[in-house]
């Protein structure tokens, strides 16, 4: 367990520009059936490229470069071989895989292991808060981290996967991700009224003209709200009801006192160089859209209780969503990239409303998401597929925080799923590729250190990691698994002559050769969201007849085939298993085990004989808005 640390103040590392690779690919590889692309700097339109199977040394795909990009989306080999790309007259890429749910295979566990490692204490109740910068449950992140929200959503998106891993907590009988969620819940409940001293922070909390808060305990209610919702979906076997009722009670009692019922503006005062003054929205716990998430969670909780009051929470969620619909301004930097690591909350929260309660979403919800998608299409119109801030300045002018591309993919996946926008989903995968090396530095955004390799804390298949890190910064993240460490500076991007006129390097106020911007929990939270929402467009449940055709009706006593397509293929050398939930006659009956059907397919099946007393049957996978369902009428 790597949880204790000493606070240091290193913030910027400088180093020489590394030699750029000629053919930039996602170094780990690409998911079958998804967008696939690479960047070849300086290549002319029409330049030929080939994909070479490394095992056979044979060309298996050919194409042409356009706008310094090569696309090979339609190449979907069913094999475990590695490939490389060769561009005529330019060079070759590093090896990469193409496989079923490859991103989920190499990144799902690291996505939550980061949050295991950054806890400020092993004990959630007697945590030594003053030694945690920001005074919260994760290093260099106060209670505003909202880790529990995205840990719960990560589990809900793919439960059969996370049920497999039980090696890091307690008696090894409870999934690690569940244990982590319960740890955060205990922390939140124990400190929901904490107002003591914390480590040095860049500013203070509270409304202008009112007493300032040193610790952002308000946001602990948001972390408890998702646990209350998850209790009814998947936490009931692990969370005692009496403890859940305490969590629910404190949320109901403190909700209005802590202003969780509304969108909060001007809550953080910052004296940091990047965002000095009162901030309309910020990553410090008043993210735009945060109240949509938390009120929806309480709505989902309360509607399951006989004495619950779901209506009031639904009303508050609707009012918060209406605020976004009316006031979210894509051209206002304080609503977008200026709030850095919190920017992803806004589109994801609005999309989540459509996922869990579409019939109650305010008028204009989908239209606002469609407008955001259009804005993203416009702002990513470059061969990096990087969301730029302006024509002359692409990255943040004062700090290179990591909250852009790693989190933006998740927002694009969520909105693309609701709008059936395949181009936006492709852009989401381009953000993932950016993280894994399709960027101006040609490196994964995480430093590939020996310390991380020794503890299994790095992504399989990545050759080139970020050239520097801040192992001894505020968060002491050098030995934390899955940490992101840096992102390209404005000067690193190749731009048009118009864009570079005037010497754009001078816009990089943080330093000429500063690549690494200290990783921290709020950056990894956004990456965790991307891992979670990526499954929305690729997982599904079907009910088939014996001939393999999808059916909507069957007879009692008939044997059908239940089919699950999900990100469960973690070991290419094993026939793996999953579980789906059966609901018979409107009541959850039990789970049924499904088995992997073939190499690199991601398809799991099981035969099921419909009970003679069955009048209706539903098969589902996932919870909390991520459920994929198939219904069968019984003749």
Automatic annotation (TrEMBL):
Family stated for the protein in its record: Belongs to the glycosyl hydrolase 9 (cellulase E) family.
InterPro entries: Cellulase_Ig-like, Ig-like_fold, Ig_E-set
The protein's name in its UniProt record: Cellulase Ig-like domain-containing protein
Superkingdom of the source species: Bacteria
């Amino acid at each position: 367990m790597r949880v204790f640390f000493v606070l240091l103040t290193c913030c910027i590392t400088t180093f020489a520009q590394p030699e750029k690779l000629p053919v930039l690919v996602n170094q780990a590889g690409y998911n079958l059936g998804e967008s696939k692309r690479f960047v070849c700097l300086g290549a002319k339109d029409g330049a030929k490229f080939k994909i070479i199977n490394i095992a056979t040394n044979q060309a298996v795909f050919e194409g042409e470069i356009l706008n310094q990009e090569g696309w090979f989306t339609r190449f979907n080999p069913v094999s475990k071989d590695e490939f490389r790309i060769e561009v005529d007259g330019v060079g070759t890429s590093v090896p990469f895989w193409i496989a079923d749910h490859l991103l989920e295979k190499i990144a799902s566990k690291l996505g939550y292991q980061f949050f295991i490692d950054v806890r400020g204490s092993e004990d959630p109740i007697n945590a030594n808060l003053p030694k945690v910068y920001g005074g919260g449950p994760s290093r260099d992140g106060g209670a505003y981290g909202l880790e529990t929200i995205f840990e719960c959503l990560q589990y809900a998106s793919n439960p059969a996967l996370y049920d497999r891993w039980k090696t890091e907590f307690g008696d090894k009988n409870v999934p690690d991700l569940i244990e982590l969620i319960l740890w955060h819940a205990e922390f939140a409940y124990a400190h929901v009224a904490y107002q003591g001293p914390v480590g040095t922070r860049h500013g203070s909390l509270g409304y202008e003209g009112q007493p300032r808060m040193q610790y952002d305990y308000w946001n602990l209610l948001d972390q408890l709200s998702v646990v209350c919702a998850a209790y009814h979906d998947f936490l009931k076997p692990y969370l005692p009801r009496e403890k859940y009722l305490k969590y629910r009670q404190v949320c109901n009692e403190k909700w209005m006192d802590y202003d969780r019922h509304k969108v909060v503006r001007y809550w953080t005062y910052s004296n940091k160089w990047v965002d000095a003054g009162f901030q309309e929205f910020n990553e410090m716990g008043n993210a735009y859209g945060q109240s949509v998430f938390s009120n929806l969670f309480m709505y989902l909780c309360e509607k399951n209780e006989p004495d619950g009051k779901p209506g009031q929470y639904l009303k508050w969620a609707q009012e918060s969503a209406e605020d976004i619909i009316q006031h979210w301004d894509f051209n206002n930097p304080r609503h977008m990239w200026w709030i850095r690591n919190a920017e992803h909350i806004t589109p994801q929260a609005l999309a989540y409303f459509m996922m869990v309660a579409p019939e109650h979403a305010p008028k204009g919800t989908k239209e606002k998401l469609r407008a955001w998608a259009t804005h993203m299409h416009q702002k990513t119109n470059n061969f990096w597929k990087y969301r730029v801030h302006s024509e002359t300045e692409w990255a943040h002018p004062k700090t290179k925080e990591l909250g852009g591309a790693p989190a933006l993919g998740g927002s694009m996946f969520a909105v693309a799923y609701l709008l059936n926008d395949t181009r936006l989903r492709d852009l989401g995968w381009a953000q993932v590729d950016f993280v894994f090396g399709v960027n101006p530095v040609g490196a994964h955004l995480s430093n590939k250190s020996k310390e991380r390799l020794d503890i299994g804390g790095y992504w399989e298949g990545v050759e080139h990691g970020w050239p520097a890190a801040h192992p001894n910064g505020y968060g002491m993240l050098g030995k934390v698994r899955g940490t992101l460490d840096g992102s390209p500076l404005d000067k690193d991007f190749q731009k048009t002559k118009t864009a570079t006129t005037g010497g754009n390097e001078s816009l990089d106020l943080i330093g000429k050769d500063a690549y690494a911007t200290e990783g921290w929990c709020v950056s990894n939270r956004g990456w965790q969201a991307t891992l979670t929402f990526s499954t929305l467009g690729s997982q599904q449940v079907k009910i088939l007849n014996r001939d393999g055709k999808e059916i909507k009706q069957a007879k009692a006593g008939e044997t059908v085939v239940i089919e699950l397509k999900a990100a469960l293929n973690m070991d290419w050398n094993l026939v793996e298993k999953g579980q789906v939930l059966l609901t018979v006659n409107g009541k959850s009956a039990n789970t049924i085990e499904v088995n992997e059907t073939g190499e690199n397919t991601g398809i799991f099946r099981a035969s099921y004989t419909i009970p003679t007393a069955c009048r209706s049957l539903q098969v589902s996978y996932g919870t909390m808005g991520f459920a994929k369902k198939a219904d069968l009428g019984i003749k």
